[in-house]
């Protein structure tokens, strides 16, 4: 009698381990984002030759884009009931962004165009890999609940691809007649397209999660998609206005963008006393970040329409008051969740990340930057960085036996 043929083992069910896999990948990627977040204020005070560009670049490309990479994959996998991307693919995407951001910073600072170009190429590769991962998640999703947000993420990555291409040209070329036009389009595509669209697409879902509430009834898939499309159109108008040297058109794009952001806010749940008592400064800092985002967008529109006399101050306030506060508030939620360890350890983690001091000094820093009070801003940022580092260290300590 012939021996039975050996049974072929079936591939592991990656859907069953999707949450654990996504958490493991997000821990690594958000750890990279945290490292760039700490490096940004340090870069602002150490001697360097590229002025405000260096800390802004390390924060917006290194920290924010890394956070976007980790958060979009984590949320898309868990809320779409889809398998996590293969670990090798997730790692390649993570390090393409991180090494690319570091390469562009080093190349600009050392004035080595080849390094700058290589860094920009790596960032572009990181965006392409993230798009491929999100398309895969959308295709294998068990539920389409999060599909509108994923669609907005893909639009954001398209804007980012344009922004990175423009940034590569700016980094490799000499300032000339087109330089200011390209720079304005670069800022529009990256800050308001790549970063802004991801945040806007996530907010209706994430605010409900932060506040432990149901999503608002107004946050329908149709509205989420419509807001994403309208914001993308506004970014295109702003960028085109810069390329055509039509500051009024660029400013109109940002005014429209701010108006759509106000509509996005109407789709967020309304926290009550119970939610504020639990989330406290995390939820308030998220709200403050959204407020700064809308206000600085309108101020930047006014600046562009008037010839950009105070653009740098507004961009710094947008980065710190808007995006940095949204990022820190988000990491303050994700940190305890990704650390895990059971219900008691989760509650202890949320207590650790409740920082009223961070809420105060974050807004002081943003206001000081907008007013040109650089010393006050530097002091507030230093306190914020120290407080965040201390709380992060406490969060990472092993549990007591």
Description of the structure:
With 401 residues, the chain is mainly alpha-helical. It contains 14 helices and no strands. The chain has helices spanning 18-45, 53-80, 87-110, 113-140, 147-172, 179-211, 221-243, 247-265, 273-279, 281-305, 311-339, 343-352, 356-371, 374-396. α1 (18-45) runs parallel beside α3 (87-110) and α11 (311-339) runs parallel beside α14.
Could you list some keywords that capture this structure?
single chain, 401 residues, mainly alpha, 14 helices
Summarize the entry for a quick read.
This protein has helices at 18-45, 53-80, 87-110, 113-140, 147-172, 179-211, 221-243, 247-265, 273-279, 281-305, 311-339, 343-352, 356-371, 374-396. The protein is mainly α. α5 packs antiparallel against α6 and α11 packs antiparallel against α13.
């Amino acid at each position: 009698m012939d021996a039975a043929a050996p049974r072929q083992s079936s591939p592991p069910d990656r859907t069953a381990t999707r949450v654990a896999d996504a958490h493991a990948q997000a821990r690594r990627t958000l750890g990279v984002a945290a490292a760039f977040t700490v490096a940004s204020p340090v870069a602002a005070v150490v001697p360097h030759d590229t002025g405000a560009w260096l800390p802004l670049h390390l924060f917006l490309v290194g920290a924010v884009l890394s956070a976007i990479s980790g958060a979009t994959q984590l949320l898309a996998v868990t809320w779409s009931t889809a398998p996590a991307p293969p670990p090798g693919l997730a790692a390649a995407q993570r390090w393409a962004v991180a090494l690319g951001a570091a390469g562009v910073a080093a190349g600009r600072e050392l004035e080595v165009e080849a390094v700058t170009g290589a860094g920009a190429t790596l960032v572009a590769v990181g965006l392409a890999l993230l798009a491929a991962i999100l398309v895969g998640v959308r295709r294998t999703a068990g539920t389409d609940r999060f599909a509108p947000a994923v669609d907005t993420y893909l639009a954001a990555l398209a804007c980012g691809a344009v922004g990175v291409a423009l940034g590569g040209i700016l980094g490799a070329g000499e300032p000339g007649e087109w330089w200011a036009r390209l720079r304005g389009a670069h800022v529009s595509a990256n800050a308001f397209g790549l970063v802004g669209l991801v945040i806007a697409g996530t907010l209706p879902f994430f605010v409900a999660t932060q506040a432990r509430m149901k999503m608002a009834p107004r946050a329908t898939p149709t509205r989420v998609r419509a807001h994403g499309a309208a914001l993308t159109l506004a970014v295109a108008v702003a960028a085109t206005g810069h390329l055509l040297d039509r500051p009024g058109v660029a400013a109109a794009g940002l005014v429209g963008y701010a108006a759509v952001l106000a509509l996005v806010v109407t789709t967020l749940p309304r926290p009550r006393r119970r939610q504020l008592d639990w989330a406290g400064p995390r939820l308030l800092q998220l709200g403050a970040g959204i407020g700064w985002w809308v206000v600085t967008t309108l101020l930047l529109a006014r600046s562009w329409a008037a010839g950009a006399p105070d653009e740098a101050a507004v961009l710094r306030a947008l980065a710190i008051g808007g995006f940095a506060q949204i990022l820190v508030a988000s990491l303050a939620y994700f940190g305890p969740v990704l650390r895990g360890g059971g219900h008691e350890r989760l509650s202890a983690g949320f207590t650790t990340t409740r920082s009223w001091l961070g809420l105060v000094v974050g807004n002081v820093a943003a206001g000081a930057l907008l007013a040109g009070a650089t010393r006050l801003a530097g002091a507030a940022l230093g306190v914020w960085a120290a407080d965040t580092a201390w709380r992060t260290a406490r969060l990472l300590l092993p549990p007591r036996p």
